[in-house]
UniProtKB/TrEMBL annotation:
This is ABC transporter ATP-binding protein. The lineage of its organism: Bacteria, Pseudomonadati, Pseudomonadota, Gammaproteobacteria, Chromatiales. It comes from the Bacteria. Residues 24-247 form the ABC transporter domain. Belongs to the ABC transporter superfamily. One of its GO terms (molecular function) is ATP binding. The keyword Chloroplast does not apply. The keyword Hydrolase does not apply. Keywords: ATP-binding, Nucleotide-binding, Transport.
């Protein structure tokens, strides 16, 4: 069956008139087009693509490549100089911070106003307002004028509204970057569910976010589509081009390969490296700030147990407020049984701010033959000793799960989303999901 795409863009172009001096603008008006006092700048040139209903497509590209211009055209807030576009269904967009909000109105009033602008009836708004405000979760600020809001609060409120208006197409421009870790996780959970029924256009500089969320990506470069296709392929090509450019800027010469190149000899000899020691004395030390356990973390489960404390400690048991990536830590999880539990399993997952699982483990295998039964009202404490990976800068969280049974068949008694949040401030690792603490690295010249 033939079905129309959710987004159709054909030969879109946008030209801005650039005036070198403010008075040139006046001269242009006075000369009524008989002389030209500006030069043209094409922010978009001949951009064509389609997004099918139910697809999630990322838009990537360097600063100034035309991403926001494209989204504004698709949302109808900017008129293209040439080309045409069509978006099918109800479109909800999160573009510039605070756009569409009246600064003098309170958060509550703006939420109602925006929901109405996005097509909800008065009854629907009344029904959904509590859910919208709960999603935004900005406490008493909701009754303050939004001119007092931080950028994070704007994003919370803006996202909460677009998440509740039955949109067919969501257009999101880098907005999640200013939210805090908990909120970003919440948005990513929402987007993953939304993808099952709706279409998403997601602009980000963060290629791992695009690869994680999107099936397809469009790479814009100086206003033109450089490449479009599967997200992974397109992001990798974009990253390769970025690296090549950085190398050129740094003057790193490409090594020309010649026919006379000697055969590469592989060596199995162990190498030696003191990099971690060096890094820990440098500004690249991986300083990770650890926040307090969130007792009221969003959760689900059968309710037979509750996670009552989660802490990161030193291997000697001292509570940690900061951790250095690469060092030994102990994750302590205390669980209170609300029912008798014969075979409890306690587990954890560390996730990055996009909800990508980095690593995790559980007590099942260690205690499979000797389960630690616990009676209702009593607590069990699980501890996991491991080396903290070196984490790229950003926010992370730990989900904790308490189950009963076996690895494959169990009842989930309590799953606490984002029970513990931590933030990597500085890092020697900027790409990849985690850096592994290297025991040794060596580079030697072999005669
Ligand atoms: N009103 C305007 N007048 C003149 N030039 C503009 C205007 N708006 C945007 N531009 C230019 O158009 C180009 C594309 O801008 P756009 O904001 O779409 O890029 P972007 O890819 O979203 O960048 P970023 O990643 O920094 O948000 C930039 O060079 C920008 O300076």
């Amino acid at each position: 069956m033939f079905s129309e795409p959710a987004i159709h863009a054909a030969h879109l172009s946008k030209c801005y008139q650039i005036y070198d001096k403010p008075q040139d603008r006046l001269k242009q008006a006075l000369w009524r087009g008989r002389r030209k006092f500006f030069h043209e700048f094409w922010a978009l040139q001949d951009v064509s693509f389609e997004v099918q209903v139910g697809e999630t497509v990322g838009i990537i590209g360097r600063n100034g490549s035309g991403k926001s211009t494209l989204l504004q055209i698709l949302c109808g807030t900017l008129t293209p100089t040439a080309g045409e576009m069509a978006v099918r269904g109800r479109v909800a967009a999160l573009l510039e911070l605070g756009a569409g909000f009246n600064p003098e109105f309170t958060g509550r009033e703006n939420a109602k106003l925006n929901a109405a602008l996005l097509g909800l009836t008065a009854e629907q708004i009344d029904e959904r307002l509590d859910c919208i405000l709960a999603f935004a979760d900005i406490g008493e600020f909701i009754d303050q004028p939004v001119k007092t809001y931080s950028s994070g609060m704007f994003v919370r409120l803006g996202f909460a509204v677009i998440a509740h208006v039955d949109a067919d197409v969501l257009i999101i421009d880098e907005a999640l970057a200013v939210g805090d870790g908990f909120f970003t996780q919440k948005c990513m959970r929402f987007l993953r569910r939304f993808r099952e029924r709706g279409t998403v256009l997601f602009v980000s500089h963060d290629t791992s976010a695009v690869m994680n969320l999107c099936e397809r990506a469009i790479w814009l470069d100086r206003g033109r589509i450089e490449q479009q296709g599967p997200a992974k392929e397109t992001c990798e090509a974009y990253l390769a081009a970025l690296h090549a450019q950085q190398r050129r800027e740094l003057g790193v010469a490409e090594v020309a390969r010649t026919a006379a190149e000697p055969e590469i000899q592989r060596s199995a000899e162990p190498a030696v490296d003191q990099r971690l020691q060096y890094l820990n004395c440098s500004p690249f030390r991986n300083d990770i700030e650890v926040f307090e356990f969130d007792f009221d973390a969003t959760s689900f489960g059968a309710g037979g147990a509750k996670v009552v404390n989660v802490e990161l400690r030193t291997p000697d048991g001292l509570p940690l407020a900061w951790v250095v990536g690469g060092s030994a830590v102990r994750l302590m999880v205390r669980v209170q049984a609300l029912l008798d539990i014969e075979r409890p399993i306690v587990g954890f997952f560390v996730k990055d701010r996009l909800g990508q699982l980095l690593f995790g483990d559980n007590t099942f295998l260690t205690y499979a033959d000797q389960p630690v039964a616990v009676v209702a009202g009593n607590c069990v404490e699980a501890s996991f000793d491991f080396s903290m990976p070196i984490l790229p800068p950003g926010e992370y969280s730990i989900d904790i799960g308490v189950a009963e049974g076996s690895q494959s068949e169990h009842i989930q008694h309590h799953w606490a989303h984002d029970a513990l949040l931590f933030r990597a401030h500085t890092s020697s690792v900027t790409t990849g999901l985690v850096g592994i603490p290297m025991a040794d690295i060596q580079l030697r010249r072999i005669a």
